[in-house]
Amino acid sequence: MNPVESPCIRQCALNEDQVCTGCFRSRNEIARWSRASQEEQKEIVVNATKRSEMRSLSS
After folding, report:
1. Is 54 exposed, middle or buried (0-12, 13-18, 19+ CB in 10 A)?
2. What does the H/E/C string look like for the chain?
3. Which CA distances in Å does 33 have to 17, 27, 54?
4. What is the reported pLDDT for 45?
5. Distance between CA atoms of residues 23 and 51, nearest Å
6. CB 8 within 8 A of CB 49
7. Block means of pLDDT (10 residues each) for the chain, length 59 residues?
8. CA dihedral sign, ordered 26, 28, 30, 36
């Protein structure tokens, strides 16, 4: 299986909700990433993408 690519874009800053404004992962998701299974990593990417899309809609 191919590894899941991290959504990190090296613009790390947590907002008031403890979500990175660069990759849209939560603080806990960032901390878990290296120990997460591929399925968990895929779920993290899906959740981060949803957060990013919600941010775009509210702007």
Report:
1. exposed
2. CCCCCCCCCCCCCECCCCEECCCCCEHHHHHHHHHCCHHHHHHHHHHHHHHHHHHHHHC
3. 18, 10, 22
4. 98
5. 9
6. no
7. 91 96 98 97 98 86
8. negative
Burial string for 5-33 (b: 16+ CB within 10 Å, else e) reads eebeeeeeeeeeeebbeebbbbeebbeeb
Q: How far is CA 6 from CA 10, 23, 24, 35, 38, in A?
A: 11, 9, 11, 12, 11
